[in-house]
Amino acid sequence: MATPARPPPSAIILLVYPATLLLGSLFSAISPTARSSTSHPGPPASPLAPSLAADLHMSESPVNYFARKNNIFNLYFVKIGWLWTTVAFASLLLAQPAYRFYSSLSPSQQQTRIRRSLQAFLRYALATTVWYLMTQWFFGPAVIDRSFVMTGGKCQEILRQTGKASPHMSTPDQLAVLLSATTCKAAGGTWRGGHDISGHVFMLVLATAMLTFEAIGVGAFSFGSRVEGDCVRERKASDPDHDAVRNIEQDGDSGLAVTWSLRLVWGVVGLGWWMLFMTAIWFHTWLEKWSGLFVALSTVYAIYILPRKLTTWRDIVGIPGA
Question: Where is the catalytic site (predicted)?
Fold first, then answer.
């Protein structure tokens, strides 16, 4: 297996996520603005109590724009966040020299490109599968919805309207209503009472971490430093990717594609981090945010950190840029 142009990023960079959640949670606890936005009748809620997100989105005029669930960034970025993640990842796969094919490549170099591309797609597929099972579908309702119900959560308004055991509802229909947050909210119900793992935290951490590791990996390959305005190191003619670097350097259009693909990726990562910070301030309890973080970082560890230590797993999923 080829060696990356420089070592892959340290797992220490993942500490930015717990630091972001901690900063946002502390801000929500001590800021008068945040506290007034989350205020509601009755005794103050414990930070480990059921989520206040339902109360927040019911407020007609939140103090902060980002406390509104209908803010433009939530509607057109976070709600379709995995689509943005997919587009950004696809731009890396299509534009970066680590994956592209050139006529001057030898058969062995072409095989290396194929292996890199397949492993990159496998890493994306694994992350997408975890995202889908957690937030969309897991042999019925998603894992987040199932865990909410298992910890005592209910669709309160639906229960009031139908009763605990409505004769007009079959058991599968009742389960569909009770186990799906989307169905509950669409029917005018309120999703309350259980441990609501933060899907926003989970998705934003997983997506931005995945794109960061992928971008740093392919950026380190060949001339990623030049894209950032630095001097690129000279590659020896014996380097298996020497011809590819030379072709890219002579092709202005390809160089432009490389630059813009990285800009897209870092744009998605930057906005994703900002929305993670906003989520940390305005939505969910501490425990719900940290449980979403734990699931996301566990996935990132399995896909990007564990292969560095486990050779058999590295041979399957690879390392970005290697």
Answer: 200, 284
Among 168, 195, 242, 284, the active-site one is 284
Rounded CA separation 256/264 (Å): 12
What does pTM read for this prediction?
A: 0.77
Residue of 57, 168, 195, 200 marked active site: 200
Angstrom distance (rounded) from CA 55 to CA 156: 13
Classify the phi-psi angles of 152: left when phi > 0, otherwise alpha if psi is within -120 to 50, otherwise beta: left
| Residue pair 65/227 in contact by the 8 Å Cβ criterion | no
Residue 28, number of CB atoms within 10 A of its CB: 22
Residue 17, amino acid: Y
Q: Which amino acid is at 55?
A: D
Residue 151 pLDDT exceeds 60: yes
In the residue annotation, 284 being an active-site residue is answered as yes
Span 40-65, pLDDT tens digits: 433 344 444 344 333 334 344 566 77
Pairing of strands 191-192, 154-155: antiparallel
Type of residue at 59 = S
Q: Which residues contact 108 (CB under 8 A, 6 or more apart)?
A: 240
Note the helical H segments in the chain: 16-30, 32-37, 53-58, 72-73, 81-95, 107-135, 143-150, 156-162, 171-179, 181-186, 199-220, 224-227, 242-250, 252-282, 286-300, 306-309, 311-317
Give the C-alpha separation, 284 to 133, whole Å: 21
| Mean pLDDT rounded to a whole number for the chain | 74
For the residues 99-128, what does the mean pLDDT come to? 85
Query: What is the Cα–Cα distance from 82 to 96, expressed in whole angstroms?
Result: 21
Catalytic residue at 242? no
CA–CA dist 95, 255 (Å, integer): 9
